[in-house]
Predict the 3D structure of the following.
Amino acid sequence: MKLESNTPPGPLAQKWDRHRAEIKLVNPANKRKYEVIVVGSGLAGASAAASLAELGYRVKCFCFQDSPRRAHSIAAQGGINAAKNYQNDGDSVYRLFYDTIKGGDFRAREANVYRLAQVSVNIIDPCVAQGVPFAREYGGTLANRSFGGAQVSRTFYARGQTGQQLLLGAYQALSRQIGAGTVKMYPRTEMLELVVADGAARGIVTRDLVSGKIEAHSAHAVILATGGYGNTYNLSTYARGSNATAIWRAHRKGALFANPCFTQIHPTCIPVSGDYQSKLTLMSESLRNDGRVWVPKRKEDCARPPASIAEEDRDYYLERLYPSFGNLAPRDISSRAAKRVCDEGRGVGPSGLGVYLDFSDAIGRLGHRVVEERYGNLFDIYKEITGENAYDAPMRIYPAIHYTMGGLWVDYNLMSNLPGLFVAGEANFSDHGANRLGASALMQGLADGYFVLPYTVGGYLATQKPGATLPADHPEFRKAIEDVGDRTRRLLSVNGSRTADAFHKDLGKLLWEKCGMARTHEGLTAALKAIPALREEFWRDIRVPGTGEELNQALERAGRIADYFELAELICLDALTREESCGGHFREEFQTGEGEALRDDERFAFVSAWEFKGLNGSGRWDLHKEPLVYEEVHMSQRSYK
Ligand SMILES: Cc1cc2nc3c(=O)[nH]c(=O)nc-3n(C[C@H](O)[C@H](O)[C@H](O)COP(=O)(O)OP(=O)(O)OC[C@H]3O[C@@H](n4cnc5c(N)ncnc54)[C@H](O)[C@@H]3O)c2cc1C
């Protein structure tokens, strides 16, 4: 298989404009003759569905929540980047592009990242017009703050609720189309199969989560905007419902999975507090604008109350190690630094796996009211979970799984290797390389949905015959429906002794230990033995109560966890074969003398794109490589010192 990125020719800064000018168009009267399925109603899915419907296509949009408004995007806290340069502090499209490429440790496709930076400039104004209440300066202009890996302030925000406000905006745009009859919305409906006929994506099979009804939906193109797969690790900052089933089912049908081991570990989360926990909570990176990260210099001081530790006995290790970026060093680097000080025995809190995030300086400098205005809801969340008041004593934080840079492989048009299957937002792999910078996921989701797919999906549809789609009794649809039914019956019939959640806990622990913040050949090899064994046990001993013809959340979870068992194996395989460290992928064998990630550009400057070849005890995959060719930037050793 030859991977074709379809990156347009010409100078980097002109590629997108030229491509847009040359892309095939569908005549307005023909647009209503095309059906498009959008799976997902988060920022990427809602914006894509609304934009395509506004253009005149007939759209069906699916989500598993009871309302599109409850997509996981609603959890996003800190902000959204855009190279508007409102602060006049030296920002530009090129600087956002370069920061993103460097932040991703030179493992992203250059042309996609440039386009993202270009398009970012267009996102903010329509969101303001939708009514998104971005923070403003006293004089009324939009305010900005900084996020990791940048030395400018380019992050637009609505307190600590930016995702919620942006999603309400996208939801309004979507609702307008639902009202106009151009989008048919299917809430509480889960896609369980992709239908591929003659090599192209032709539809999906879904299960109504309330009645259990299994249905086929046919279309000229399918867009997956189904979010990330970080919940494979069980404990993460994701909404508990976020899952990998849509992309995994598509992968099993031939869509390549790119860079699965590129998972992001966020340094600023509330530490794990016990074995009963089902999720972790993020304390937004925005807090590092004003909060200072430290641990005691001496192990013996770790148990003392923080206020009693003198200034000279504190180690503000990010400011010490990375003076030019300080507390805003990127996530991968800050997470590893936190792990290192905790491994040295200098961690704080009951588990010893915690570092302080301290606002006393900021409160002294700005006053309690300003700190509350900027971050009040985050302090409230912290108090609700820990019972501690972070205005009086420092927060305790520790790294946790937060985002996945890997995802289904897409070309420049965001189309997978299966014609007609597009992938947007966190579900694709395209823009963040081996480490995503803060506030860039919302930017990417909305760029994909509002500004890229409306062109590129049209370009694909222009090559397809308008009118009838594949009939629902086509053999590929019948087979997909049968497969969904068989799998559901199989899960229900094992009648074993353990819940899906219990298996998920075991899998998550294994993945975190062997393929979390630090990875080794030995650990990954062991994980690759243990995961298939655990998977077999899952299929022997899983217990799913109830039936398939009713609301059955145990059944939903079991199906998703069954998919995690396969994906987890691929994550470890990818991590084992990538014999270098880059971004969030840290192989202990490959590090600099100072403990930083050591890339191997000679051997690994490529995207790993995995083709599913079947499962027989262990999984089998073929590896395809898309070389990363940089025309504009020079690959260099990343430094934030
Ligand atoms: C706590 C937290 C805070 C964050 N803060 C920020 C931030 O400040 N700035 C930033 O840039 N990024 C942030 N992120 C990351 C960002 O929120 C996500 O990457 C982004 O919102 C993902 O959007 P999405 O549209 O791709 O997917 P999602 O919002 O996850 O939406 C997925 C959609 O797909 C649907 N779906 C999934 N599977 C199926 C299926 N099988 N069948 C039917 N429907 C399905 C779901 O119902 C949902 O509608 C944060 C992440 C977390 C966890």
Observations:
- DSSP finds 17 helices and 19 strands in the chain.
- The chain has a mean pLDDT of 96.
- The first strand starts at residue 35 and ends at 39.
